[in-house]
Amino acid sequence: MLDLRLYMLQRLTALIMAPLVIGHIAVMIYAVQGGLTVDEILARTQGSVAWFLFYGSFVVAVSIHGAIGLRVISFEWFGLNGRALQLFSWAVFALLFGLGAKAVYAVTFAGVGL
Amino acid sequence: MIRPHRTHPLWFAFLLHRLSGLGLALFLPIHFYMLSLAISAPARLDGFLRFTDLTIVKLAEYGLVFLLAAHLFGGLRLMALEFLPWSPHQKTMAALAVAFAFLVSTLFFLKAI
Amino acid sequence: MANETQTMTQTMTVSIWRENGDDGRFEKYEVPARENQTVLDVVAYVQQHIDPTLSYRFACRVGMCGSCAMMVNGSPRWTCRTHVSKVVANDQLEVAPLRNLPVIKDLATDMDPFFEKWVAAEAVFHPSKTRHDPMAAITPDDPMRIAASEAIECINCAVCYAACDVVESNPDYFGPAALNRSWSLVNDIRDDGQDVRLAAVGSNGGCHNCHSQQGCVQYCPNELNPTLSIAGLKRETTKALFRRSR
User: What was the ipTM of the complex prediction?
Assistant: First the structure.
């Protein structure tokens, strides 16, 4: 089920995300005070290479990590295996990465003339 | 699901890690979708963000932050278990991970309301 | 004899799994409720006094041979060293065959898959010397000797195998006992099969499937720590990956 390669990917993405999650929680605690607005979010992130790299690497790591995690759960708890499991894992990765990339683009560079 | 042989603290730590991961993975597509509205439909996103001012939604957010923090600290515990010298305090570490998650998410909730 | 009759007045009910090529079911038996008896004593009483067709497995009765493990009230136990008074819950005692193994009949399980996985996990010694070579000198304070010592004294009872949820959900998974044995051999400097061993424990059924639920540690009657051993294998296979890529 989980061979060395997938295990390493899972731990590597976890290690990358550990500081990112701590940063994300810190930003949430700071930003949630007084409520959230679109302008407030965009003022922080729009045109920022730093936030693009922060959320960009976050999305890449979480897409891999989430896909492997759901792969294990669907195998162990729902008996999915073989080709179906392979397809499912890639579909989860594609969904998370696609939606995540769109979100990161939207809050960083979408409204900025490049 | 909880059968007699599973009733020990570290099995519950496993269950929390699995369910928090599952919950986060299911939440993420919605999270990403809402954020991508920032440019295409900012009014809709602002409408949604006003909806998050409701106390019931704040409570749901409290839950989500708890899941995130529990998965973070639980994951750090697992990687410490695997890559650092063995500690005989496994149950204490699992309890600490939950305590930290509770602390951090409660701090978020207090700032949110 | 008078004493025997006296103790017979106090009885308890035990549910025992009966299966013989069918679906299997629990059957109830009235047995003496003695102050001091093990679960194996109760099973033996049923077989000797109530139903001689009850099949179960035991040998040494002193916790050395590892053949009498069963599920007792839902948890895996070595029945010869498990006192009824310690595990009875609400006056209920339920004895079933070990989890995660095919049942041959009643309480006797087929241990073949369990031992086949020891071989698959390369939990077998690969000698590096012959009988004509001098003995390997290993001092007791050698760190590898200490690491190996922590993982020995396994009696192959399969209690950990029955406690493990990963074994339940993944038929390929080698399980705690086999991987624990592999780890003790990783720390054996006389062994000449480390590359094939690390390849085996890093394969599809290997150590990376472990979720560190530590049910094996919880239930091991000899207080071994297979989770620690599996963590060691995870580290060694990771290190080997970096060695290979250099």
Answer: 0.93
